[in-house]
Amino acid sequence: MEFLELPKRTTGNRTYGLTSVIDLGTPLEELKSILNDYSSMIDIAKMGFGSAYVTPNLKEKIELYKRYNIHPYFGGTLFEKCYHQNKIPEYLMSLQDLGIDYIEVSNGTLNIPLQERLDLIAQIKKDFCVIAEVGSKDSNKEMAISQWKDEIKQFLEAGCQYVITEGRDSGTAGIYEKNGNVKGNLISELIKDIDSKKIIFEAPTPKHQMYFIKEVGANVNVGNVKLTDVLVLEAQRCGLRSETFYLEDSECKLPL
């Protein structure tokens, strides 16, 4: 069906309007079925937290994602575990052996100094597409809006392709209050001063996703999307749900 006037979505090898899913152990055969139908709606696949290290059929899963032109990568917690045990060189070698070309540099669990993260990005950006994450997984840790802006800008200037705003898979930390509400003032300030095409907003529930679609536009970059919610998200982006019903091309705030 192609007779409705809907917000124009980016397609193909997108550089924005990204949907980044979180894979928390989807069995290989089930994943094949999901990607057979919905792969065109997915751009990036994160194997959540450190789960990639114990994922059965890891190589096959990576190859499956790549077959559908989806970029697989491992969660930032695995990066932090390797950093904590001084195993970053081994980690990088493993990624290359597996054919992974995306890497997340985060400090959601550890307090890794900003300069150390920037130095590491400078070293690895020639071999990987680097995604940095800003924000803590600890809901009791608060960052000033100015610090959010400063870190995001420094990561982009250092050569990161994208920066993720921490939200956890629960939507209760980072850019969210403990009760799951979005920190609206923070988001408003971020998209005012920074190119939102370079930010991936972690939004693990349809409610969170609708917020960013309405605030940023149909082609907002959204992360931590459950594989089972991919179709729901795409329908929301296209104004095909009550909460985004009146979203029109003129309201797609990211210029095409």
From TrEMBL:
Superkingdom of the source species: Bacteria
Entries under InterPro entries matching the protein: Aldolase_TIM (IPR013785), ComA_synth (IPR003830), ComA_synth_sf (IPR036112)
Pfam families to which the protein is assigned, alphabetical: ComA (PF02679)
Family: Belongs to the phosphosulfolactate synthase family.
Protein name: Phosphosulfolactate synthase
Origin species: Pseudobacillus wudalianchiensis
